[in-house]
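Annex B. Sample input.
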Amino acid sequence: MSEFIGRSCCCSGRVRAFRKYLRGCQDYIETGTLFGGSAVEIGQIVSGDVHCVDPLNGYNGEDGRADPECDMVPSPEIVRSNWEAAGLDPVRLHLHLQKTPPLPVALGDRKFDVAYIDGDHTVEGCMSDWLLLKDRISKFIIFDDLDNKPAVRHVVQVAVGSTGSDWRLIDHDFLGILAHV
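Annex B, continued. Sample output.
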């Protein structure tokens, strides 16, 4: 892959976890894309379409705000460039330029094998994404920043601890990976 533009949040531990669990998965959706690091890494593993839901207009959805770690403003052009630099087919990448909720109307009632929740890291934002996605995902939901964001940890505890929950926490090394059971 050519040099990644912006900041890729995918360290080797995350990539190993993605490869361990996501082999054989097809369609993928994520909330929170930044510069497309997780979309690119997971796009190299899954065989289907990759859907990114993020306004891509600035850091944390704030118009024109640069990411403080790399001093760049996220944009659709950067995500597409990173995707294509990785040698991935541009037809598989779908950018939905909006915040959640709601999910994009264009998705209809589409289902996915995998979701990655990495948007709003507040309890409200993370819980909203969980509730939007949990019934559309057949295999795995990945929560970013489980170990260093108490709000994310709280939502994961609620997700797996609810009576009758169909989800189990199977990995919790920085990422929270839930498997549908």
